[in-house]
Amino acid sequence: MIFGFSTHSATLTTGIPANATGERFEVAFDVSPTVGSDPAQATSAADRLVVRAIDGFGVILGQLSVAPGVWGGSNNFSKYSFTYIGNGTGLVKIVITSSVVTEKFAGAIDNLSIISKPDIVSAALLQGHERSISEPAILGRTVTSPVVTTSFLPITISGTTPHAAGTTSGPTAARTSSVASSAADAATGSSYKLSSTTDAVQGQTWQLDYTDSGGRVLGSERMVSTRFVAWRRADRRAVDLPTTAWVRLCGNEVFTLQDGYQLIASGRDRTLQNGWQSEIVVKGGAEAVLVTGVSCSGASAVVSGYAFGVSADEPPLRDEPIEATSFKIKLDAMGRESARKTEARTISLGEICANPRAKELEGFCRAAESALRN
Known about the structure:
Layout lengths: L1 E2 L5 E4 L11 E9 L16 E6 L5 E7 L11 E8 L7 E6 L6 E12 L3 H7 L21 E2 L5 E4 L19 E7 L6 E9 L3 E9 L5 E6 L6 E4 L5 E4 L3 E6 L2 E6 L4 E6 L6 E6 L6 E11 L2 E10 L12 E10 L5 E11 L1 H4 L9 H12 L1
């Protein structure tokens, strides 16, 4: 049971070996509204429980914000899960907190498990890369590891939380960042800036900053790290291309979309205090997703792009049109899909990167164009 005080959290005291580089893991758990001895402290509709997986440096690998719902007089557990890609930087710990500071219970959590989700992504991520990896990967054979399950007996209840937003540690401390995407609030003059930092170990790390009209930072949030995608030449040689990330202010919700080997959608209020996060599956199985546009439709966000297969020769790095799944998905302010359209079609990287193109695509397109020339 997690109370809504800002200093109250549950943290696993012993790290879990579930962070192999390039491997996908699923964190699953059950959540219920709850109450203590005081009925006034019962979970309400506004309360949210946040579950984070952090690495050895305190970097958030993945997270999910859950609204357990209103306490109805008895426990009513529902299943939730999120996935993350291991970065190889130490053991994983789980941190559970309330997303808002209240004098209510954010919810109760039980049956936590971290499970390896072996698929071709693991092999495709590692094959052909000049990186130090913890286990060998053979293309066409999945990289597996045992199921790792833990209970909430070995936890520390304290004020311990992951590194505060806006700080860096470990391998990324000396790196400089660049703004990949931004959105302005016309009503106040404030803005939201999504910056990326590239690191050989952690891949691309992302941070969302909320600034006033004078550029002063009012709030920050560390985003999920993403991995460069191994695009395949005709000779199957891997070429790493960067992922993209987008931020848009739609109504009162700050939406962020991150692509790569998974499509991650997140939403936060204007102050970045309350939020949610989910992984969107476009075509199923091992896939590489490239977002090509994000726009607002009222208080909803509409994300569009393409999903490609991941295999010995996919996603293909070619001049000519390649097979892809085109998608357009509409998300409401709670992260729920309200509309979806997908279709198989052929598309060329030249068509995707044709000018004029969105600022968010610049890094990917410059790298793709350079790879195609050389």
